[in-house]
Amino acid sequence: MKIIVSAGGTGGHLYPALALVDYIKTQDKNTEFLFVGTTDRLESQVVPQMGYEYRGLHVKGLVGNPLQKIKNAMIFVKSLKQSKQILKDFQPDIVIGFGGYPSASIVLAAAKMGIPTMIHEQNSIIGLTNKILIKKVDKIVCCYQKAYNEFPHEKTVLLGNPRASVVSSRRLQDIHHLYQIPRDRKTVVIVMGSLGSSSVNTVMKEALRDMQHDAYDVIYVTGKNYYESMRADLHDLNSSIHLVDYIDDMPSLIASCDLIVSRAGATTLAEITALGAASLIIPSPYVVANHQEYNAKELVDATAARWILEKDLDAKTFVKEVRDLLGHTELLNDLKNHAKELGKPHACQDIYQEMLKTLERK
How does 314-338 read in b/e, with b if 16+ C-beta sit within 10 Å? Predict the structure, then answer.
């Protein structure tokens, strides 16, 4: 089988795509893959480094002032011609788009040429690219009930994020071992995405000073750009507060901590639910269509997480919420159990089977 995978712009689009590709390789080692993305974003560097064939499209998102949008639309039209040539050269059996504007070009071109197509929507709010493609594609995979309700049900399945399968099958380490924390101490992990958050860091400077006196340890991920300044400001905290700039094995910490405090990115929540973790979510308000708040709301409504909106976030509120959660073991266990119920640990397997069914129907 020959598969074109398109995922552009951000890790939220790219890493679920890579997770699915890695799974398919275990099922059929003869499958050939071609990734299609941008010429200058994350995927253009990561994918070739992983050894996959890659083609970049010169394409821009439909953003900016009206004149810029018109210019970018013209670039998009040109990218359709380039996409058709890629399709003719590679002759894929199916094309799968994981979002981001390059997906629109290659998936739309494939649909026009009669090649089977599938899109994956990671968030509860449908992205612009996938909105464009809804009527054109053969199959739609989503992760949230809200998105499922807005897609045409006759060709949509709610199967989850491939990253859930990755973390469910990995051998994970224990947070107490990683940070030399006594095993009778509860642990809280606080991470606001890989880059960190300036606004949340400001609140946490006060909150961590209060939390150092509690009977639990805190792993606080500052973000690489903020680490030195945060360390300087908080140099006098006791050893129960662990400041780190970045964590490259979040699944291990999610699985073994007592409480994870995080943003509500699609991949993060997929991992939290797959691993059945108790979470306190602070959705980022700085994202397109406020989709993180809607992502988080699905967990909160299912009593699978608690949340604080950033507009309501202050040190006193945050510390009180953490103490309330850690002080009630039954509540923590309920959050874990309900999160696990929402998890999709077999997402890769289910999506792959749906691909095969789509090819059979064609």
Answer: ebeebbebbeebbeeeeebeebbeb
- From the list 107, 53, 99, 100, the residue with the least C-alpha distance to 80 is 107
Asked if 119 and 137 touch (Cβ cutoff 8 Å), the reply is yes
Extract the tokens encoding 200.
């949340």
- Return the percent helix, strand and coil in the chain, to nearest 5: 50, 15, 30
> Does the annotation list 11 as a binding residue?
yes
pLDDT for 64 equals: 61
Residue 132 assigned ligand-binding role: no
- Secondary element (H or E) of residue 139: strand 139-142
194 in a known ligand binding site: yes
Task: Work out the average pLDDT over 324-337.
Answer: 96
Q: Which of 30-44, 87-101, 302-316 has the lowest mean pLDDT?
A: 30-44
Contact status, residue 137 vs residue 111, Cβ threshold 8 Å: yes
At 19, which amino acid appears?
A: A
**If residue 320 lies in a helix (H) or strand (E), which one and from where to where?**
helix 315-326
pLDDT in the model for residue 68? 67
180 is in an annotated binding site: no
Please give the full DSSP string across 255-271, using - where no structure is assigned.
HHSSEEEE---HHHHHH
To the question of whether residue 290 is assigned a binding role by annotation, the answer is: no
Per-residue model confidence as pLDDT tens digits over 253-298: 999 999 999 999 999 999 999 999 999 999 999 998 999 999 999 9
Q: Is 123 annotated as a binding residue?
A: yes
201's enclosing H/E stretch is: helix 198-211
Instruction: Name all domains of the chain by residue range, CATH numbers in brackets.
Output: 2-161+345-361 (3.40.50.2000), 169-342 (3.40.50.2000)
